[in-house]
Design goal:
This protein is an alpha+beta fold and 632 residues long. It is built from 29 helices and 18 strands. The protein folds into five domains: 2-97, no CATH class; 104-279, no CATH class; 341-469; 476-547, Orthogonal Bundle (Helix Hairpins); 561-629, Chitinase A, domain 3. The longest helix has 30 residues, at 480-509. It starts with a strand and ends with a strand.
Length: 632
């Protein structure tokens, strides 16, 4: 939606903002608040509707302007009292006929419409979201509320087909792509072409081409409209190739998808092709850019290597194999296998493993294909390569790049068994010793991994007992701020409190009769406490490792992540997992060493956890909805 004056313009309608509330108008007239603030404040007047990112849609039920409070009855949080300033910042006004507002008070009307005129319901939903939304978002809005969860899939499959045939909206194949409502009197084909011509950048052109490919039947009687686009695509791809190779590859691949889905279109012999772009690209840049593409388009790029490089295409493609990410590694290996060129990949892998130069995604592929395509290179060297990569990544600055590789060791129950099974006893002991010393793994993780190794190679059991005897304390991960606070506390004890206590002891001693001298006893107790506290702080600071939490892996709950959890009622709450000394219950900050932190760390979205309520001491069952990196 686009703001223009005091109206919201949607694709097919103009919605007027609510008039200024009389109480607010008085404040504006008196000069106590500016008019724009008065207009925004009036949107939160009782009876109006709004949207909150976490709580969903809501209706304002009451406000207290002098007290700067507002009460909103949200779908996910009934009668939520909020600070007025916070509500102004965190909510967005919606009109009463917005789909989300109707779900609050007119849900039965929507349910009836889903049966009598489902396309009208879908159009209304799309209009309320600015004319477009993904299939996933549409399901979230309808399933379980407007339409019963058990019947939603059948309902949507039938009406998705009807929506396509109606030409009311462009309906993509992927759930994660946007369903776009069409506007005006143009034909569907004209509307799709207009979207492409209106695109301001390569990304917009790619999205428009994807919509065209998804609705290619709209051009059965109007292929001339598509032919006009081909020269524009050529020009855009040539320009982008100089500075945005990845987008140029995407654009040409999307164009090829459109041509492939059309029965009448053919590619002009002079048109730019994927092979042309490959020839003009540097290998490192090509690997980096191609690795960002979706799997299907990556495959199209790699399939163009023979046309681009002729007899040397195999040598060219293996050079980018371990630089293109997880999707690219899989697609390249599949292409080489299909074309009988797997031996070239095996030779490349042997050389890279020997040089300890194989990336995490390539190592993951080798491990997963160890019984099949990579069986010839799955050797004892793979274990050393894995640990080398994990340790180097752990010691380097920046975000971790080997989290998936580390997770594979734990998730694949037979990987370590298979790995140590092909080692001789000395290799197995050396590998086990390195794993026990590896700083990447926690104690519990080491125990779990070693249990598998010992089961396969009992001779390694002696290493565990030896490691236990030499166990040292784990370092503490802490924020720089909390580390400074500890150092300041230690400095205060050493510079101020201990000298003051020595003086207090001397003065108290002067009072005589130490057996009945309360001041002396109190000063000596303080002396013991200060000595104990000084030693404790010395040890803690020595163990501490400061961090700013940047680059935390948010695929699972880790130190430096924000976790959104919901209880049985669906009420969301954010908890931030930080360093050992960063707990602040009022701000929902928890230490990774706390009971709550230990329950959360390692969990993934969808997992349920048991957390003790700090007030009632009762355990709550919460579900992890999402995880995101903490940004200090």
């Amino acid at each position: 939606m686009i703001l223009r004056g005091n109206a919201l313009r949607f694709p097919n309608r103009v919605i007027i903002f609510p008039a200024m509330h009389p109480d607010v108008a008085k404040l504006v007239e008196a000069g106590r608040i500016p008019k724009p603030l008065g207009e925004r404040l009036s949107q939160l007047a009782p009876g109006n509707f709004c949207i909150h990112k976490s709580f969903g849609a809501g209706k304002v039920v009451d406000w207290d302007l002098p007290g700067k409070k507002v009460v909103i009855d949200f779908v996910k949080s009934a009668d939520q009292a909020m600070e007025l300033q916070f509500a102004l910042q965190k909510t967005e006004w919606i009109p009463a006929d917005d789909f989300r507002a109707k779900k609050i008070e007119q849900i039965e009307e929507l349910r009836s419409l889903s049966k009598s005129d489902p396309l009208k319901l879908i159009v209304h939903l799309l209009e309320s979201h600015g004319g477009s939304m993904t299939g996933d978002a549409l399901e979230k809005e309808l399933c379980g509320t407007v339409i019963a969860e058990a019947s939603f899939k059948k309902w949507w499959d039938a009406n998705k087909k009807a929506l396509r045939e109606s030409r009311l909206a462009a309906v993509p194949q992927k759930r994660t792509d946007a369903i776009v409502l069409r506007t005006g009197d143009r034909s569907p084909a004209e509307a799709l072409v207009a979207d492409f011509e209106a695109a301001r950048d390569i990304k917009g052109m790619i999205r428009a081409l994807e919509a065209i490919a998804a609705d290619i039947s709209a051009f059965e009687n109007d292929t001339d409209a598509l032919k006009r686009l081909l020269s524009d695509i050529d020009e855009g791809a040539k320009k982008a190739a100089r500075v945005q190779l990845g987008q140029a590859l995407q654009l040409v691949a999307a164009r090829d998808e459109v041509i492939g889905s059309s029965k009448t279109l053919e590619l002009d012999p002079t048109a730019v092709r994927l092979s042309d772009l490959l020839l003009s690209a540097e290998p490192v840049k090509l690997a980096e850019e191609a690795g960002t593409l979706p799997s299907g388009r990556q495959r199209a790029v790699y399939e163009a290597f023979p046309d681009a490089f002729a007899d040397v295409w195999v040598a060219k493609i293996v050079r980018v194999f371990d630089r293109v990410g997880a999707r690219g590694v899989t697609e390249i290996a599949r292409i080489l296998l299909e074309r009988g060129e797997l031996p070239a990949l095996v030779n490349h892998l042997r050389s890279a493993i020997a040089r300890r130069d194989l990336g995490a995604d390539a190592l993951i592929w080798v491990c997963r294909e160890r019984k099949d395509a990579s069986s010839e290179v799955f050797s004892a060297d793979i274990g050393a390569a894995i640990l080398n990569l994990l340790e180097n990544d752990h010691l380097s600055d920046g975000p971790r790049k080997t989290s998936r590789l580390q997770s594979l060791l734990g998730d694949d129950k037979n990987l370590l068994t298979d790995l140590v099974g092909i080692m001789d006893i000395n290799e197995a002991r050396n590998f086990s010793r390195r794993l026990l010393d590896c700083p990447v793994f926690g104690e519990l993780e080491k125990k779990s991994l070693m249990a598998r190794i010992i089961k396969a190679r009992p001779e390694t059991a002696e290493l565990v007992s030896g490691a236990n005897a030499k166990r040292h304390e784990e370092p503490l991960l802490v924020s720089w701020e909390s580390l400074e606070r500890k150092k300041d506390e230690l400095d205060d004890i050493v510079r101020n409190k201990i000298p003051q206590n020595l003086s207090d002891v001397k003065i108290a001693r002067s009072y005589g009769d130490l057996r009945e001298n309360f001041e002396y006893k109190s000063a000596k107790d303080m002396e013991k406490y200060l000595a104990h506290r000084r030693n404790a702080l010395d040890k803690e600071i020595h163990r501490a490792r400061g961090t700013d939490f940047k680059g935390s892996d948010a695929s699972k709950v880790n130190i430096g992540t924000i976790v959104t959890l919901t209880d049985a009622s669906g009420t969301p709450v954010d908890m931030t997992v930080l360093g050992a000394w960063d707990s602040d219950p009022e701000k929902k900050l928890v230490s990774y060493l706390s009971e709550v932190g230990k329950a959360l760390v390692g969990c993934s979205p969808g997992d349920t956890v048991q957390i003790r309520d700090e007030v009632t001491e009762v355990f709550q069952t919460l579900t992890i909805q999402s995880i995101r990196p903490y940004n200090p």
